[in-house]
C-alpha cells in the first residue's frame, strides 16, 4: 500500500508540473486511477 501511495504521489507531482497535466488527470479518472 505504501509503495502504491508513494508512486501515486510521485505521479501527481509529475502531472502537476506538466502542461498536459489536466489531460493526464482526466485519463487517470477514465482508467480508474492507479495505472502505471
**Series of H and E elements:** HH
Structural class of the secondary elements? mainly alpha
Total strand segments: 0
Low-confidence sequence ranges: none
- Residue share in helix: over 70%
Gap between N and C termini? 15 Å
The main sheet comes to: none
Strand residue content:
under 5%
Average pLDDT number: 69
Coarse morphology = flat
Radius of gyration: 10 Å
Total number of helices: 2
Summarize the structure in short.
The protein is mostly helical and 36 residues long.
Structure description:
- The protein is mainly α and 36 residues long.
- The chain is 75% helix and 0% strand.
- Helix 1 packs antiparallel against helix 2 (21-31).
SSE order and pairing:
Elements (H helix, E strand, L loop, with lengths): L1 H16 L3 H11 L5
Helix pairs in contact: 1-2
Amino acid at each position: 500500500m505504501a509503495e502504491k501511495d508513494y508512486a501515486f504521489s510521485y505521479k501527481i507531482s509529475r502531472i502537476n508540473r506538466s502542461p498536459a497535466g489536466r489531460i493526464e488527470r482526466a485519463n487517470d479518472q477514465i482508467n480508474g486511477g492507479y495505472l502505471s
